[in-house]
Prior knowledge:
single chain, 62% helix, disordered N terminus
Amino acid sequence: MNQPSSKVVSNQRFISVILLNLIITVGELLGGIFSGSLSLTSDAFHNFSDSLSVLMGLIAQRLGQRSENERETFGYKRAEIISAFLNSLVLLLISLFLSFKAVEHLFHPSAVHVTVMFWVAIISFIGNIISTFLLHPKDDSSLNVKATYLHLLSDTLAAMGVIVGSVIIYFWHLTWIDPLLTILISIYLLTETIPVIRESCAILMQASPNLDYDQMSKDINAISDVTGVHHIHAWQMDEFQIVLSLHVTVSDNRLKDSDETLQNIRHLINDKYHVSHVTIQIEPEHGSHGNHHQMFVQE
Length: 299
């Protein structure tokens, strides 16, 4: 199934942001070279990485909307998770690199052309505000959109920092404020990026989603005719869809009439635990004394 439209950002918004960030990148790179501002030059690299990030996010979203087929039976949902992971990882590496360069400039500050630095940062800030507005994520937005948005937010903050830094340098001649702002912005980005990396990595590694498995077992065991639950396995296709498989034992004399039991279990798991895809295997209570009677329900 395709993602609901509330989780999808329009292609036009993605493309608009890409073009806007490429324009900002060129402007900031030239401004950074002529002004000698490290924070402005670093913001240019941030913006260029944003353009690549948004392009990757657009491609991943288009792939994620493709339907399931014989080869990709769960569809292409993981494309957006891979994009979120790679985008966040790139932003992490960029933040670490710029922090390293900023520390060097703290000990060896260089002259800065404040006027060029200020006006280029103003233009960049306006452009980045527009970009963040276009791709601002909702509560149910995908990790892909959130990771892409973090790139844009990083440049908005960086541009704001450059503006503040240029004013401080103009009035108080504190040139070390330029690399210091770069370090502070990088630290903030690290705190925002690491959780996205953790979540996307957990999904890619098929880590168990956050479900109360003990309570789930108790709830299933409380259903009539159920005598046991075992082999519970759960994983996520993306941050919205949970897949669950489990084995359920029922009374031997009720094995042939287990349709109602299956439906009760399925409704319980769907309604209470919000699992989108459930596979249930029914087994006899005394499996060692006879052949297993296997039935499957998928939703």
